[in-house]
From TrEMBL:
Protein name as annotated: Phosphomutase (TIGR03848 family)
InterPro entries linked: His_Pase_superF_clade-1, His_PPase_superfam, PGM_Phosphatase, Phosphomutase_MSMEG4193_put
Domain of life: Bacteria
Length: 210
């Protein structure tokens, strides 16, 4: 890696009581389940041996709670960044996924997300631009460093797709599990390099670091 590279670790928050059942969006008050707290602790353990320089999180409770053990273990402050927040799903906030899957519009979510906007909410295109822009700001603010960013499934999928040069309409093919880590290397003047996607097991100390 060159002196001007930055390694961004993109971490999805841990499980909540509604994971896989409800589309929570940005609704407040959703906390980690017991399994989610264990996943948060595991992320912190996996960071051992990495020279983490900064930790950022979406401002929602479930991401902040996932980031807290990592901040504690590294001794770094936890910074909130609105650019890492979940997609604004508008009128669909809090809806059951089984009910949404029965709607004709759900086909747009799955097969042509680049053309889809959540009713009275954000479009996937806007979400991707926001997330990619936020990561670019963090990359520029932390040259030659390791930065951990705690976010949500769709924003991370969109960022990984962008880094891979994959069209947004294909981003649903990327799996981002609760508590998983994806790693993207950003080198000034070069396309980003995706080093890891949806990793939930092995230590992260083997990653190339600045």
């Amino acid at each position: 890696m060159t002196a001007q590279s930055t390694l961004l670790l993109l971490v999805r928050h841990g499980e909540t009581p509604t994971t896989g059942k409800v589309l929570p969006g940005r609704a407040p008050g959703l906390h980690l389940s017991e399994r989610g707290r264990a996943q948060a602790d595991r992320v912190a353990e996996r960071l051992t041996g990495l020279p983490v320089h900064a930790i950022y999180s979406s401002p929602l409770e479930r991401t902040s709670e996932t980031a807290a053990p990592s901040a504690s273990r590294t001794g770094l402050p936890l910074h909130h960044d609105d650019g890492l927040i979940e997609c604004d799903v508008g009128d669909w906030t809090g809806a059951a996924l089984a009910e949404l899957a029965a709607l004709p519009q759900w086909q747009g979510v799955q097969h042509s997300p680049s053309t889809f906007r959540f009713p009275n909410g954000e479009s996937f295109t806007q979400m991707q631009a926001r997330m990619v822009g936020a990561l670019e700001v963090l990359r520029a603010a932390h040259p030659a460093a390791v930065v951990v960013c705690f976010s949500h499934a769709d924003p991370i999928k969109a960022a990984v797709a962008h880094a891979m040069g994959t069209h947004l309409d294909l981003f649903q093919r990327i799996m981002i599990s609760p508590g998983s880590v994806s790693a993207v290397e950003y080198v000034e003047g070069r396309p980003p390099a995706v080093l890891m996607v949806n990793s939930t097991a092995e230590p992260l100390s083997g990653l190339r670091v600045p």
